Each structure stands twice: as C-alpha cells, then as structure tokens.
Amino acid sequence: MQDLLYFSQQLINGLTIGSAYALIAIGYTMVYGIIGMINFAHGEIYMIGAYTALIAITGLTALGLAWLPLILIVALLCAIIVSSSMGWAVERVAYRPVRGRHRLIPLISAIGMSIFLQNYVHLAQGSRNVGFPALIEGGFNFSADGAFEMSLSYMQITIFVTTLICMTALSLFISRSRTGRACRAVSQDLGMASLLGIDTNRIISATFVIGAALAAVAGLLLGMYYGSVDPLFGFIAGLKAFTAAVLGGIGSIPGAMLGGLILGVSESMTSGYLSGEYKDVVSFGLLILILLFKPTGLLGKPEVEKI
Amino acid sequence: MLEVQNLSMRFGGLLAVDQVSLDVKEREIVSIIGPNGAGKTTVFNCMSGFYKPTGGKILFEGKEMQGKPDYKISRLGMVRTFQHVRLFTQMSVVENLLVAQHRHLNTNMLAGLLGTPNYKAREQKSLDRAAYWLERVGLLDLANRDAGNLAYGQQRRLEIARCMVTEPKLLMLDEPAAGLNPAETKELNQLIISLKEDYNVSVVLIEHDMSLVMDISDRINVINQGKPLASGTPEEIRHNDDVIKAYLGEA
Prior knowledge:
Chain A is mostly helical. In chain A, 73% of the residues lie in helices and 5% in strands.
C-alpha cells in the first residue's frame, strides 16, 4: 500500500510538471508546424510571463486587493498580454525580416533575441531569484497507517485543470474556428494558402501569439508551484518543453501534449526512485533515444519531401 | 480585363520570358501553348505574384499587378492552380473549400469565440457555397473525406471548386488535364466551358492536350523559348507555319 501511494505521489508530481511542460511545448510545436523553425526565444517568453504575473500579484496585493480569484485572473491576463506582445514582437523583429533565407539565419537571430530578453530581465529585475507568493495553499492528504503520506495539493489541481482548459480550448480553436482552419492550411502549404487569399503573415503572427499566451499561463502556474523566479527560469524549462515537443513529434499539437506528460512523469519517477540528480540525464537521454530510433517523434508524421 | 504588356522575366543570365503580351476579355478562354520549357508557367508565376517580373506590365481591370504579393492579387479576383495538385491533403474536402473562403469571412476571433449570430450566418453561407460547388463537381458524397484520399481526377475537380468558391473573375489553370483519362478530360472540358458561360469567369489556360485547347479556347497564344510566336483563334493557330515548325521542327 505504501509503495502504491509513493508511486501515485510520483505520478501526480510528474503529471503536474508534465502538463506545464506541455503548455510551453505547444508554442514550439505550433511555430515549427507553420514556419519550420524553432523559436529559441520561447523559454524567455515563458519567463517574462512568470515575472509579469509576479509583478501584477505584488502590485494588486499592495493595493489592498484580497480576493484571490480576482488577483489570479488579473495576474493571468497581464501575463498573457505582455507575453503575447513579446511573442508578436519576436516574430516581427527576429523572424519576419529573415524569413526565406538560409535556415541558420532565423535560428541565430532567435538565439540573439533569447539572450537579449534574458539579460534585459537581469537588468530590470536583478539576477537573484525572487520569491513568488504561494497563493494557493493546502490540499488533500492520504495516508496509510499514518506512515507515508501522499498529498495532492490544490496548486497541483489548479495546474491540471488550467492546462486541461487551455488544451481543450486550443484543440477546439484549431479544429473548429476559421482562424484555426487557416492555421492548419498554412502549416500544410503556406504558398497555396497565400494564393487563396489568406494573409499568411497574420496567421504566422497568430501562432506566435497563441504559443506565447499558453507559455504565460505556464509561467504563472509554475512560478507559483516552484515559489520563485529568476532570469534563467525560462532556460531549463524551455529546453525541457522543446524536448517534450520533439519527443511527441514536433509540429503535432497532440504530440506536444503527450510529450510533455511523458517527460514530466519520467522525470519525477527518476527523482522518486533513483535520485533527483539523474532527472535531466533521463529526460535528455530520452530525447537522444527518440532522435535515434524515431526521429519524427511519437506522433509526428514522416516528413515528405515536397516536389 | 487582363492585359499583359511586354512581360519579361530574367533569372541571372537566362531570359525565361521575353516581351510576352496577351490580353483576356471578359468571359473569354485564352490558352497559352508552347513546347516544354517555353516559359508558360513562368508567365503564370509572374501573373499570380509568385515572381516579380523584371520587365513589362500586368494590368488587371486597369490596376497594375506586377510585384504585388500573391494574396492581394488573388483577393482582387485572379486565382490559379498548379501543374501538380496542391490540395490541403490532411484536411477534409469541405474544409478545403471553407478555408479558401477565409478572406470572405469575418476573421474576428472574438466573434468566433462568442459564436455571434453574424459569425454563424457567415459560416453557414460559406458552407452553403462549399456544398453548392461540391455538388457541381460531383464530390458532395465525399465531403468529409480527407482530400488526400481522393482519386486523382477528383482532386483535380476539387482544386477547381476551391478556386471557384473564392469567386474569382479570372481563373488561371496550369495544365488542368495533365494525368486525366479521356473521359475525365471531356468532363473537365465541359466544366471549364460552364465556368465561362454560367459563372462569367474568364480563363487563362496552359495545356498540352491539343484537343482540349482547340475545343474550348476563344483565342490561343503560342510562345516558344520565352518569346511570343503567334496568337489568334484556334483555326488560325492550326494553320500557322511558325507554330507547326516550333512543334514539329523544321523539315
């Protein structure tokens, strides 16, 4: 019984972190699906989302606001607005001017963008990590004979539920809405979509904005979950989410969701049964294995060379 | 309605299109023919905004088109197809037609999220138009199939339907009969004539199938090695010595 509870605890922790990875991974996968490039500044956009949320929470609390749901919603909206504008700006500054050039050029301009944003936050917010207030406390505890306790915190439930809502909304948006339909068309054949009168620049901007908005949601959630943020907050999370996207098959949205969950669970299982030190070894080892044996990822389609 | 004046397209040292002119009047089918590599598709690419021509003018309803981005040209009513089928293969047949109407629809995301009556009405209208064209090209039963799973001839017809839902004034078809069997070519023949007669669309056609070209064209332009060789009615072209030489070689 105790073993089962221990296992469930790892599973819960893994799914929590994994669903947040999935939220970030969607940004990578959508951008790749449309323009075939990796947005290396995406981790920074997520980090800026977390900082914005923190600033909003601090400000609102200082103003004497005490009603928690309102604080969270306002903080979430602020984070989404700031991150989305960043996502839009990154595309305009680092991608659009060099689109159609050699693939390495946008890659490098995006890395430049990432370094710039990271250092900007260093300057503006200081390089030390800042505490993130734990707004959602408490949870359910399960125990067997008073020995090991398994806990499911309200924060974890919040992360699940929010991720679930975001994913459902995104899936509906992509499959049902006109803009979503246009996104799919552009990702399949950008030239043809353009010839049919779709303003592909707008659709590309929209993908960056949607990805950034989801990253901002993840920023707020993980900021609260970890309890602190620092300017390098986005670096590791970005790498992990990128791994998740590749794992699931880059370009595929369900793949990013699946990849995030697998990565999160395998990390927490490693921490729980081996040692926390091996966590990153396992996640990046997984990436190498996938790249070796199934380069298109779990749900990715083999790339067909266009004639 | 369309006037191409002295169009030239140079790629480095290669002059792919040299001083080609053609004009298309309303409700007219004009063909461009010529041996392989004559520059026919390059002319299309210039007209549809794929290439920015290095010389000459393209006037559509009096407005200069050369160098405009392709989506603007298609919004003004000039729509094209390609030699090979370019459907959105992973989308359903009906979605292919809906996405082509994107620009006609109000793309306000908020309206979509709220499902306002206006949004729904427009969506319904685009569905109706899609259904109408599917019926017209005989694909209504296959509306929910993935476009990539259709037979080749069906894909060709779907492509034309997809152009038509954008309500073009001028349709540019690049070898629409390529790969079709004689029966399918005949159907295509009737479809193109009906586009002109029933829907008032002008057509510019690149085609190698001479029976199709001679049957449906009002006028024919022949180009050879990038240069205009002849133009006239099918009857004139059939008896033009230069054209016969270009196609059959000199004796």
